[in-house]
């Protein structure tokens, strides 16, 4: 029996469910993923047999594909949040941060690690705050 994972965007317009299992969970540090997330890496779950159902807001989901590449990104046109995509190869790709419940698997690997941001190395060495700074 497949697990069902619910998710949504930041503004709540788009809600979805993904059923199926996650075969891989990659943290991709490539320049495209850094650009499209604005962060150090993308964090995407890959399901080879998953099904993606939009619960609400499917008319606000837009998918951008970088021309002549397989790099694709779905997002909410209201708030810009990353959303799942159904890829041409049949995989459902789910941004881990878009899920509302616990992520059921640990990351598989950092990928494109040679392309990581110049500020990325040794992040575990910097101070950690439990809340916002200045509180
Ligand atoms: Zn939204
Ligand atoms: Zn990437």
Per-chain topology:
Elements: E1 4-8, E2 15-19, E3 24-28, H1 31-37, E4 42-47, E5 51-56, E6 61-65, E7 72-76, E8 82-83, E9 85-86, E10 92-95, E11 109-111
Parallel strand pairs: 3-11
Antiparallel strand pairs: 1-2, 2-5, 3-4, 4-10, 6-7, 7-8, 9-10
This protein binds zinc ion (ZN) (2 copies).
Explain what you see.
- Residues 5-120 form the CENP-V/GFA domain.
- Keywords: Lyase, Metal-binding, Zinc.
- InterPro entries: CENP-V/GFA (IPR006913), Mss4-like_sf (IPR011057).
- The protein is mostly beta strands and 135 residues long.
- It starts with a strand and ends in a 24-residue tail after the last strand.
- The chain contains 1 helix and 11 strands; from the N terminus they run E-E-E-H-E-E-E-E-E-E-E-E.
- The model has no long low-confidence stretch (mean pLDDT 95).
- One zinc ion binds next to helix 1.
Characteristic key phrases:
mainly beta, 5% helix, metal ion binding, 3-stranded antiparallel sheet, binds zinc ion, single chain, 135 residues, 11 strands, globular, Metal Binding Protein, Guanine Nucleotide Exchange Factor, Chain A, 5-stranded mixed sheet, carbon-sulfur lyase activity
């Amino acid at each position: 029996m497949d697990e069902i994972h619910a998710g949504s965007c930041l503004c709540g317009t788009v809600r979805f469910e993904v059923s199926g299992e996650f075969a891989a969970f990659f943290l991709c540090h490539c320049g495209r993923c850094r650009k499209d997330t604005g962060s150090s890496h993308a964090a995407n779950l890959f399901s080879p047999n998953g099904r993606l159902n939009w619960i609400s807001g499917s008319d606000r989901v837009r998918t951008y594909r970088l021309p002549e590449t397989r790099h694709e990104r779905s997002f909410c046109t209201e708030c810009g949040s990353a959303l799942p995509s159904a890829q041409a190869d049949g995989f459902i790709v789910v941004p881990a941060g878009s899920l509302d419940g616990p992520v059921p698997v640990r990351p598989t690997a950092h990928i494109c690690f040679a392309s990581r941001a110049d500020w990325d190395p040794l992040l575990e060495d910097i101070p950690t705050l439990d809340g916002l700074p200045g509180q």
